Amino acid sequence: MTADLMNGAGLKKDLVYSVLLHALLLLALPYLTIKAPMRFMEVSLSAEMSTVPQNLKRRRREPPKTEKRVRTWTPGEGEPVPVANIAPEKDLSMPAPEIRDDSRPDISAFEEEPDIETPLPDKMLPFFEGKEGQSFQISGPISKRAVLRRVYPEYPRSAQMAGVSGETTVKFWVSADGIIERVIIEKTSGSEDLDRAALDTVKKWLFAPLGAGEEQIDQWGILNVRFELK
Q1: Do residues 128 and 201 make contact, with C-beta atoms less than 8 angstroms apart?
Q2: Residues 6+ positions from 172 with CB-CB distance below 8 Å
Q3: What pTM was estimated for this model as a whole?
Q4: 45-67 tens-digit pLDDT
Q5: 120-148 burial by CB neighbour count: b if 16+ within 10 A, else e?
Q6: Which residues, including other chains, have CB under 8 Å from residue 165's CB and lie 6 or more apart?
């Protein structure tokens, strides 16, 4: 019996607590705010097409450019207006100051003078053996044919500077047309430069062609070329 009494007392306490809790909730209900649920709005990102024609769109007006007209004067229109002479702008920029380095000694007094080339004597021209270079002594069968072109050799400058002189004997063969076909050194002057100059000169000579009644053969000849410094 004691146990039944204790169980009944416990149920009464629970009932009292439940009544008090519900009373508190009813009193606090007016002060509670219930938030509405969050809604999502769908937004279209596509750009709206413009229905205005391109040619009707407002264009930005630029101010008209004013052209400068040059007035010209013609007779009968009065006196021309003189043109004002505008002086050009002067350059006021200052040149950069020259910095002189006094730490280096002046060596202008010790500079070497350029070598002055000593002129060669006036008479250094080679000549063919004969009186004053006018009479050419040609030996051999070709000596009977006339010379149409004579070329004088140039004195090699290296031989002039070295004071070299000498005489070169050249043997040559002439065709029936009068053209020199072959040249050789018959006797050297002792200088390659002089011998080469003599050969190059004799190659340029030209003789008269053989006649129709003559035998059309090559003829040879010998010519002495003397190189002498006077």
Answers
A1: no
A2: 142, 180, 182, 183, 184, 202, 203, 205, 220, 221, 222, 223
A3: 0.43
A4: 554 555 555 555 556 666 666 66
A5: eeeebebbbeeeeeeebebeeebeebeee
A6: 159, 194, 227, 228, 229
